[in-house]
């Protein structure tokens, strides 16, 4: 078995030539390697979940080759979905990127949980309100201090110690 090879097996005692079948299949397969891959096939090929596909598409890790809009039988509305370049999907699979991306996502989630817990602890202790009122009074008392947005969040992360 080789990648990109299709084998038609028939019993040895079969007298039919099957050349017409082989020709019909060959004609249908011309150019199939360049056809875009639909989302469900991407999930099957890469062994990923739909949520991972959505997240990685949004992040730009999975590159869309465009969108397709179709009307399903029995449905009033049309649906639009992203399709993917088969060469890109093959590259992602060959380099085992889904595993790398899952590890990155796990680290990011752990870091976000840590930050959220730290922020919640500060809020429970009342320091969060105190920090924001101190910064507000500082801005009012000294007009030369530039009004920089986001310093409160920066300070909450514990980076200004």
Strand order of the largest sheet: 1-2
> What coarse outline follows from CA principal-axis ratios?
elongated
Helix-strand sequence: HHHEEHHHH
Number of strands: 2
Proportion of residues in extended strands: 5-15%
Largest sheet: 2 strands, antiparallel
Q: How far do the termini sit from each other? A: 62 Å
Put simply, the count of helices is: 7
Mean pLDDT: 83
Low-confidence stretches: none
Structural class: mainly alpha
Radius of gyration: 28 Å
As a percent range, the share of helical residues equals 40-55%
Plain-language structure description:
With 161 residues, the protein is mostly helical. Among the domains are: 61 residues, no CATH class; 45 residues, no CATH class. Helix content is 55%, strand content 9%. It is built from 7 helices and 2 strands. A two-stranded antiparallel ribbon has the order 1-2. A hairpin with a 6-residue loop joins strand 1 and strand 2. The relative contact order is 0.08. The model has no long low-confidence stretch (mean pLDDT 83).
What keywords describe this structure?
161 residues; mainly alpha; two-stranded antiparallel ribbon
Per-chain topology:
Elements: H1 19-29, H2 39-46, H3 50-59, E1 64-71, E2 78-84, H4 86-94, H5 97-125, H6 127-141, H7 151-156
Antiparallel strand pairs: 1-2
In short:
The model has no long low-confidence stretch (mean pLDDT 83). By secondary structure, the protein is mainly alpha-helical.
């Amino acid at each position: 078995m080789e990648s990109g090879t299709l084998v038609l097996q028939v019993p040895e005692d079969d007298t039919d030539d099957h050349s017409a079948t082989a020709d019909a299949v060959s004609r249908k397969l011309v150019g199939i390697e360049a056809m875009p891959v639909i989302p469900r096939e991407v999930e099957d090929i890469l062994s990923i979940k739909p949520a991972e596909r959505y997240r990685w598409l949004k992040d730009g890790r999975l590159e869309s080759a465009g969108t397709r809009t179709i009307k399903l039988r029995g449905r009033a509305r049309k649906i639009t979905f992203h399709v993917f370049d088969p060469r890109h999907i093959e590259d992602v699979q060959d380099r085992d990127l889904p595993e790398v991306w899952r590890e990155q996502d796990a680290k990011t989630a752990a870091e976000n949980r840590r930050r959220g817990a730290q922020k919640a602890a500060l809020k429970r202790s009342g320091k969060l309100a105190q920090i924001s009122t101190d910064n507000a009074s500082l801005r009012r008392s000294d007009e030369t201090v530039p009004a920089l947005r986001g310093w409160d969040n920066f300070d909450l992360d514990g980076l200004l110690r």
